Amino acid sequence: MKIAILYICTGKYNLFFKDFYTSCEKYLLKDVASKDYFVFTDEMQLCTYDNVHLIFKKCQGFPADSLFRFEMFLSIKEQLEAFDYIYFFNSNAKFLQPVGKEILPNETNLVGAEWPVNRKPFNHPAFYPYEKNKKSLAYISSNEKGPFIYYMGGVNGGTSKAYIKMIETLAFNIREDYKNGIIARVHDESHINRYFKNHPCKILPKEYCIPEELVTDNIQPRMIFRNKITFDLSFNKGRKTNLYLKCKRFLDKMICLLKWYL
Length: 262
Known about the structure:
Layout: E1 2-9, H1 17-27, E2 34-41, E3 52-56, H2 64-67, H3 69-74, H4 77-80, E4 85-89, E5 93-95, E6 110-113, E7 155-159, H5 160-179, H6 188-198, E8 202-204, E9 210-211, E10 223-225, H7 243-261
Parallel strand pairs: 1-2, 1-4, 2-3, 6-8, 9-10
Antiparallel strand pairs: 4-7, 5-10, 6-7
Helix pairs in contact: 5-6
C-alpha cells in the first residue's frame, strides 16, 4: 500500500515539520503502508530524508498559502496518481498514538474530519461558519437537505482517484471565486465543506483531529494539532479576547443566524 502525504510549511511553519515527520513515521500505518511526503516549502534544506520530496513554494502569507493549496497539489498530479491513497495534514499536526487502517476511507472513497468543538449553546448549523454569500461557489443554504456537519480543513484524504477529483473541483471553484472578487469566509475550508456536503465521506472522530488546547482528561488523542501560539505569538494573527471583541463575536453569531434564514 502506497500513501502520498501532502504537507505545506513556509515561513515560520517550517519549524513544525520535524515533529510531524518523526511522529508520522512512528505511528501512522506503521508496517502497513509505505509513505512518501510531498512538502511544499520555501526551505529547501528542510531535511534529507529519502521519502521526503521538497517542492519549492514561495511564502505568500495568509490566506494565500492556504487558499490556493489545491492548485499546489495539482502541480504534482502525475506523481500523485501513482499512489493508492492521498492525505493532507496541517503543518502543526502531530501523532501521539498508533493510527492504523481505520483512517482509510470506506465506500465513499474520501475521509474528512468534523470540527471536535462543543458549540453549545450554538450547536446549530445556523451558527456554523459556512459560506453564506450566494455568489460564492462555497455557498451552503439552509434549504439543503441535512445532515449539516462542519468539517475542518486540517486533515482530509481518500483514494488517489477520488482525492484528485476533489482537489480539481476545489482548485477551480476557489479560483473562480477569486476572479469574481470573492474569498470564502473560511477560505479553503469553506470550499471543503461545500464539497463534502455534496460528496459524503468517512468522518474521523475527535481523537484523530483535536486541537491541542481542547484536549481534556477524558480524551486520549491519537493525533493533535499543536497550539501554534505556544511556539510563536505571531501565530495569534492579532486575535484578542477583550470584552469588546467577545461581544462582537456574539453579535457575529446572531448575524449568522439571520443570514442562514434569509
